[in-house]
Amino acid sequence: MAKQPISILAVDDEEANLDPLMRVLGLEGYYVQTASDGLEAINVLQTLPFDLILLDIRMPRVDGVEVLRYVKDQHLDTEVIMLSAVQDVKTAVECMKLGAYYYLTKPYVIDDLLGLIGRALDWKRMIVHNKALKRQLAYGQSSSKMIGKSKCFLEMLDLALRAAPTDASILIQGGSGTGKELVAEFLHSNSPRKEQPFLALNCSSIPEALLESELFGHEKGAFTDAKSMKEGLVEMANGGTLFLDEIGDMALTVQPKLLRFLQTGEFRRVGGNKNLRSDVRIISASNKDLRQATIAGRFREDLLYRINVVTVLLPSLRDRKDDIPLLVEHFLKGHAGQGEPKRLDGKALELLMKYDWPGNIRELENVIERAAVLSQDNMIYVDDLALPLTPRTLSEGGSGPSRGGILVGSAISLDEIEVAHVRGVLQSVGWNKKTAAEILGLSVKTLYSKIQAYGLTEAK
Length: 460
Ligand SMILES: Nc1ncnc2c1ncn2[C@@H]1O[C@H](COP(=O)(O)OP(=O)(O)OP(=O)(O)O)[C@@H](O)[C@H]1O
Ligand SMILES: [Mg+2]
Fold this sequence. Notes:
Bound molecules: adenosine-5'-triphosphate, magnesium ion
Structural class: alpha/beta
Oligomer: single chain
Strand order of the largest sheet: 2-1-3-4-5
Number of helices: 20
């Protein structure tokens, strides 16, 4: 991928200092711009971001210490090297406290300065990389492999592999637990951007008021709580990939801003008036039909076209049941760690193949994980599976959930069935309330009130 050259702003009120600097830095391949005092420097910085600033201290209008203060307030990722004839320990200490990378006194040896610039840029790269890493960890990024050999899975994988190396925006559509996040990571790690950040944002879990600032950042004072400038994900993911999960839930107020970014590569921080640029590949995911959402007026049609240059459709687990044995083996291996993986009894596998899997692979993973914990020996039997009572599993010869001991048609009240069923569904999806509500055909709110009414807890 073509990289922009590293940009350096050199600020000094004496032209005689700037000219040789410009020449040497230019020869080193840096993009260099100059400013002849602090005020001019701040003006330039308001329109263009720089990787590094070489900053004189004594200058007319606004001095270097003030510029440093401004930079550390507004451009956290810009490194600053102070270059000054002032040999004053107090000023030097103040600059370091404010966040300058180094304080070099004039006259200096140019090779020393070049070495210093190299180290400051390495430092900056490390900081940016660490920030991205923290975000990645916070999202629970998994490095697990994608398992499957069924025809529809392999077709999906083939499309994903062809789209991955391009910069095309990709929309991943699939039901809950079908592997959307895993595919997004797969696309990134098979793209030329793989060494750059992969950042993710779940658009449904973040309040509307915060979404724009999370995406595009905000300037200091943009709203009451904005005590300092904050970079958004679009800025932090520069060079890499941004994964927008549940994009169908993105507020209508934010959608035009994302559209503009996709069209022009430009954005503004909340409360800011300068256009910033970032080079980010967008991958989105949705478990809703976005076309329906555009008809209902909840999603902009023009945005749908932009995010959807390629659509990757993830099959439901019930449409790729051939993969169940492989997936089970994979999850059992994962559970066993270094030890010997447990095995599945034939009847238990039969039941897994009959079940409908409304919560897809996540549900299967949870069922297997739970069974591996509960089973007494190295084998997993039907009893250990604790699949929820559903018409499908029940109609298949009554081989349904046996751990609770409740069978449909036995002498128990409807209320008891309901409690057992809700509990069973919750357990089988690892208490993921969103998935459980979908399986039960309830709203999450109603599910919460039932959990409360029945006094259900995860331990029960
Ligand atoms: N092909 C696969 N092979 C192995 N594991 C998989 C596969 N697909 C998904 N998984 C696992 O299933 C779980 C659910 O996957 P993921 O979180 O990517 O689904 P999702 O579609 O994003 O779900 P949701 O709609 O709930 O956000 C994860 O633990 C993931 O590692
Ligand atoms: Mg997901």
